[in-house]
Design brief:
This protein is an alpha/beta fold and 291 residues long. The protein has 2 domains: 180 residues, Rossmann fold (3-Layer(aba) Sandwich), CATH 3.40.50.620; 94 residues, 2-Layer Sandwich (Pantoate--beta-alanine Ligase, Chain: A,domain 2). The protein has 8 helices and 9 strands. The strands form 2 sheets. Strands 1-4-3-2-5-6 form a 6-stranded parallel beta sheet, sandwiched between helices. Strands 7-8-9 form a 3-stranded antiparallel beta sheet, covered by helices on one side. The structure holds pantoate.
Length: 291
């Protein structure tokens, strides 16, 4: 593998835009060495650039997809109104990725809805999926297709969308997809607040309140491996009610079920709540070594 240039911002050769599966296949066939996929719905921002940077560190070539996937929007959700800015996206990643694959909905789904699709199972119906029936089925269906089409060695996903990441890890394990999923750490402000495009909606007071999320994670992580310590930290946060919590849970990353007191291994901590009407998420991975 080649060494990535600097912090990954140095621009290389011009990026190619392809819109059909046939063109993508042709570009992919010409690539030698490790290929990384960055899957997006466009309207790229600094969070996506962090994924691109990590992909560049890990592979010789990067293919970025820009596709607003109709299958993951429910009735009444904003599929039509979802922001689309392919020109802006291309300008942002020009020279940073080898290929941008931006297919039309017809190119991706000649028949819509497709006759055969992938199910995220129970894991797709809880937490973020509870209010969005079918959302995660749509995500895993398009991710399976994109990974099949791009055929990368690895694909990067942010840890902040912890449920999506966990479900995609299950997709790859359960369907034996020949790709490595690389989680990318959450970018945080100096205060600890997870970076999000939604943070702009918060007042100074709201930003201070929102620190309840990262502080809760810190205290759960400081519980140093004890299941009861982790759960006590989460319970204490919910009781303090500094923000309007939706959930603060310790989950088995393989099943997304809440862990029991005899659980040992990696624990996925997932938090969601509202501050000044803005819904915020945060997540971290702890390790449970004892009760
Ligand atoms: O996280 C996203 O942007 C989307 O859910 C993904 C993974 C690109 C699938 O459409």
């Amino acid at each position: 593998m080649t060494t990535p240039p600097g912090a990954g911002q140095t621009r290389g050769t011009a990026t190619r835009l392809v819109t059909t599966k046939a063109e993508l296949r042709e570009q992919r066939a010409a690539m030698e060495g490790a290929v990384a996929a960055v899957l997006t719905m466009g309207s790229l921002h600094s969070g996506h650039l962090a994924l691109v940077r990590r992909a560049r560190e890990l592979a010789d070539h990067v293919i970025l997809s820009v596709f607003v996937n109709p299958l993951q929007f429910g009735p009444g959700e904003d599929y039509e109104a979802y922001p689309r800015d392919l020109e802006g996206d291309l300008a942002l990643v020009d020279g940073l990725v080898d290929v941008v694959f931006a297919p039309s909905a017809e190119e991706m789904y000649p028949v819509l809805p497709p006759t055969v699709s992938v199910s995220a199972g129970h894991a797709g119906t809880i937490l973020e999926g509870a209010a969005r029936p079918g959302h995660f089925d749509g995500v895993v269906t398009v991710v399976a297709k994109l990974l099949r089409l791009i055929d990368p060695h690895l694909s990067v996903f942010g840890r902040k969308d912890a449920q999506q990441l966990a479900i995609i890890q299950r997709l790859v394990a359960d369907l034996d997809l020949p790709v490595r999923i690389e989680p990318v750490e959450i970018e945080r402000e100096e205060t600890g607040l997870a970076r999000s495009s939604r943070n702009v909606y918060l007042s100074d007071q709201g930003r201070a309140q929102a620190l309840a999320l990262s502080r809760t994670l810190e205290s759960a992580l400081a519980a140093a491996g004890s299941v009861s310590g982790i759960r006590a930290a989460l319970r204490a946060a919910l009781e303090r009610a500094e923000i309007d919590w939706d959930y603060a849970l310790a989950l088995d990353p393989a099943t997304l079920e809440e862990i029991g007191s005899d659980y040992r291994g990696e624990v996925l901590l997932v938090l969601a709540g509202r501050v000044e009407g803005t819904r915020l998420l945060d997540a971290a991975v702890a390790v449970a070594t004892g009760a």
